[in-house]
Amino acid sequence: IESxxxxxxxxxxxxxxxxxxxxxxxxxxxxxxxxxxxxVGDNDVAGVETGDSDSSDMLDELGTLDEQDGADSGGAGxxxxxxxxxxxxxxxxxxxxxxxxxxxxxxxHVRSTLLKELERGSVVLPNKSDGTGTQTEFTMKELGxxxxxxxxxxxxxxxxxxxxxxxxPTTGGTNGGxxxxxxxxxxxxxxxxxxxxxxxPGGLAGPGSLAGxxxxxxxxxxxxxxxxxxxxxxxxxxxxTVQFVWQENRLTTRVQEREDxxxxxxxxxxxxxxxxxxxxxxxxxxxxxxxxxxxxxGS
Length: 299
Prior knowledge:
Elements: E1 2-6, H1 10-13, H2 16-32, E2 44-45, E3 48-49, H3 62-65, E4 87-96, H4 106-120, E5 122-127, E6 134-139, E7 145-153, E8 158-163, E9 232-246, H5 251-282, H6 289-298
Antiparallel strand pairs: 1-4, 2-3, 4-9, 5-6, 7-9, 8-9
C-alpha cells in the first residue's frame, strides 16, 4: 500500500486516463450491478442535495456519455466531475487466483469485489459522538473514500507455481529407511567431516546415509497406491493496482452531515405532502369530503 498527498486532487483527476478508468468502472457497475432504488446520499430528492458530488453521480449520465466526442476513441473527450481540494491518493497493489473463468476472473473479479466495495460499500465503526460507542454503519463516501480506478492490471492471468503447504518431502533409503548412521552416516555430523551431509563417505551418497539399507519408518516414502502431494500447484495469477481518493471526514462531521440530510429529506417529504394536499383542495374536479357526503345523502 502506498499513498501520496495532493494539495489539490484535481491535479490527479486532470490525467485523462484516470477519468477513463473511472468511467469504465462506473459503466461496468451500472451494467453488472444495477441499483434498483436510489441510495440515500447519492441522489437529489425534491431538489434537496443529499450527498456530495462524486463519481456515483455519473450513473445516470452513462447512457449519454457514449455520444460525447472522444467516447469512441477511448474516452479522450471526457470531462467528468471529479475530486477537488486537498486529499490523498491511496494505491493498493495485489493479486488474486480467482481465474478459473475468464468471464469472472482477472480484472472482472477486481471490479466486482474490491472496486465495487470502494465505490458502493460501507463499514461498521464505533460511533463515539453520542458517548456510547454504538456500532454505526458508514458508507465509503461518508468516510471520504471515492473515485476508485483499476490503475494497472496484468491482462491475461499468468500460470504461477505456488508451494503446496501439505507437501512433505519423503525421507528414507532405497527401501524407505534412514539407514544405519542416519543423516550423518558414520560420524553423524552435519559439517564437512566424513559422514556429514556434504562430506565424503557417510554423506548423502555414502554408506549409512539417506540411501542406507535400514528398514522403512515414519516419514519414509508413501505406501504403494497412496496419494502423493505435489510440491507445487500451478495456478493462474492476476496482478493489479488500484487507486482511490481519500479526503478525511471526521466522525463529528459525518454525524452532522447525516443529521442534516435526514432533516432535509423529512422537510422535502413534508413540503411535497403539503403541496399535494393544497393541489387536491384547489382542484375543482375533486370534491371536498363534506361535499361527497352530502351528495351521497341526496341520492
